[in-house]
Hints:
The protein is an alpha+beta fold. Helices cover 17% and strands 36% of the residues.
Amino acid sequence: xxxxxxxxxxxxxxxxxxxxxxxxxxxxxxxxxxxxxxxxxxxxxxxxxxxxxxxxxxxxxxxxxxxxxxxxxxxxxxxxxxxxxxxxxxxxxxxxxxxxxxxxxxxxxxxxxxxxxxxxxxxxxxxxxxxxxxxxxxxxxxxxxxxxxxxxxxxxxxxxxxxxxxxxxxxxxxxxxxxxxxxxxx
Length: 186
């Protein structure tokens, strides 16, 4: 059997979605979705992925979208050895736009939101698993080119200030809504 091919490459700059590289996601991985447009650099990267496996019909690690391509970048946070003992894998290094490694308090406070511009170093590999051939991408490091702070839902569901007397008194609208509130079927 021939040895499977692998190569470390740099992605083009794209838009980050669901950035969880500095902390483990709910599935126990370090992940980010990279959204690429249809620029020449992006198309060259996608073509490289298409040509990486010589096997026709191999599963590829991206999806075509209406705006371009969505590439899921992932690295495991732990593993299991043959003797069933587990080990921890460090998070991929993160670099700022100047190429300086982000660490310490800066890394702990890193709050990257959707729309941030990033690029990554990834290891592209061929695989054959249970008769299925494909190409996978392993996340090695990320460079944050332009950060957009994560802001949750972006909506404020707060309240206006009330005077103390108003706070203790129900308005006619509130009283009517309380009477109607027993029907919770929308």
